[in-house]
Amino acid sequence: MQSKQVPWKKRNTKFEGAEYRDPVPGKQSALQQALMKFADCRNGYVINPIVGTEFDNCDEGYEYYNLYSWECGFGIRWGKKRWSEKKCKNDQNRTKRYQSGQEFYCSCRGNADPNVKTSSSKTNCKAMLRLYRTSDDGWIVGDHISEHNHPLSETCGEKKHWPSHHHLDKYTKDLIRMLRENNIGITKLYTILGNFFGSMQNVPATKRCLKSVCQKINREQAEDDIKKTLDLIRDLRKNDPGFLYSVDTDDEGRIKTLMWTNSRSRMQYEHFGDVVSFDTTFKTNLYDMPFGLFVGVNNHFQTVLFAGVLMTDEKTESFKWVFREFASLMGGKEPKTILTDQCRAMEVAIAEEWLGTVHRWCKWHVLKRVKECLGQKYTGIKEFRDKFHMMLNEMLTIEEFESAWDALLKEYGLQNNAFLAQIYGTRHKWVKSYFKGVFCARMTSTQRSESANYMLKNILSPACTLCQFIQQYLKMQYIRDEDENYEERRNKLNLKKLATGGPLVVHAYKVYTLKVFALFFELKEQSEFYRAMEVVPGLAYVAEHYDLSRVQRWSKGRYAVQLLDSGTKFSCECGLFDNFGLPCSHILRVSS
């Protein structure tokens, strides 16, 4: 303990005063005096909080003692405060308070809780610094106990782990908050700060400290989350009158389901909402709520986002509310086709709410089950796998599929396989040939939904709040909209490469986008492998492959093409036009 007597004559004995002392111009601070003294003698510690050292305010005293603790190898914390109190003359029920003292303790002060089984750094260390107020509203060191009952840290790496030696300013904390909001992990965040400060050694905090800071940020963001979410929605509606949302609550007024969309999404749905993919496999948020995403495909074959929905459960009634509200937000329009996984509750809800909508299963979910149930037969035999995929992806007619299915089962002895019998019974939900007359815009799976979910997962932290979730969703939508705007610009600049091929190709060049025209031209080239034969003059034709011996044995080599509506519309038995929206190679052969 310091033995120098404190100059008591300077101590403030009043019951009121200023919060701090105004700095005197030209007067050296306690830190400046310590540095100059060390420069003269160059021994011992640079900082030495002797009794009588003065400060203009309490924070200056804390920083001074903290610098001393860094040199010595320990950490400090704020301790007991002393107050002078006096009852007011005019009101005896009121009391005037004036802080007259402040203590700073070694971080190891106090005793470990015997009921807590985790390790503790508490050693009941008595090291401390006590400050008193002076008569001119400053602060002065009154007592200093320098002895510790524990080992002191020696290296800078050890010293940085004392909480008082973490120095993260407001701007660094804002950077941490921004990175965490975009799902940057603690380790990666730490290395980014290392680049920001020049090296890892210069980062003013440890990785453990960053973890504590991030936890505090999460707690702050979770406070009043519902209020923040409603405030955000209010601001979004103010900036975009077409922004709409719908909330389903339980009997106690708590949110069960929250759905939202904006004016651009609603406009896109009006044009491209015939086919919708819906997936709820994503659950990254603070409340572990399943997130459903309605997506479609535009005229550039890009994914477009129609609406997002957060749900507390995946029951039939919840899905019925989701589909009903989605149609309501979209002006009452229901999609012609919807693609989902094999969720039974979702299947029932779609059947009850959207009577005119064709429900199709995602083929990738079907293939996943095939892989799980057939095991080595599917993964180990390439020929079997290729034939199964061919049935799923390339066969255009029901007759082709049925013939190939029977042949495959016989070839590999799977006629009595229970799983294949089960999925065969639901083939109308996942086999391409059964959707011949159903518009699907070339979508066969929920991959577009899952791709958007993956993108969202990359920018969402696992502990994100409702408010953050909507904000990050809007960021993802902005990125998608940018891609669409880029394609729109390219098309307006007319960057399509005009190929020869007669009036039909020239017309397609004028009306189709770049991506659609490229697909059309592929079909036009495929049409050269067929010859057209007139069956009924002006009404019925047959497109026949030039070399039937080169056609797959399961595949048709001849396709019937009809001319309808007084010659203004073609129809082919392959059904590609109704399914895809582009004329098939058979129609193109006949029309040319």
TrEMBL record:
GO molecular function, one term: zinc ion binding
Location within or outside the cell: Nucleus
Nucleus found in the keyword field: yes
Record PANTHER family: PROTEIN FAR1-RELATED SEQUENCE, PROTEIN FAR1-RELATED SEQUENCE 10-RELATED
Domain SWIM-type: 559-590
Family membership: Belongs to the FHY3/FAR1 family.
One annotated Gene Ontology cellular component of this protein: nucleus
GO biological process: regulation of DNA-templated transcription
UniProt cross-references to InterPro entries, sorted A to Z: FAR1_DNA_bnd_dom, FHY3/FAR1, MULE_transposase_dom, Znf_SWIM
Top-level lineage group: Eukaryota
UniProt keywords, alphabetically: Metal-binding, Nucleus, Zinc, Zinc-finger
Name the UniProt record assigns to this protein: Protein FAR1-RELATED SEQUENCE
Protein role: Putative transcription activator involved in regulating light control of development.
Keyword Nucleus assigned: yes
Subcellular location, principal: nucleus
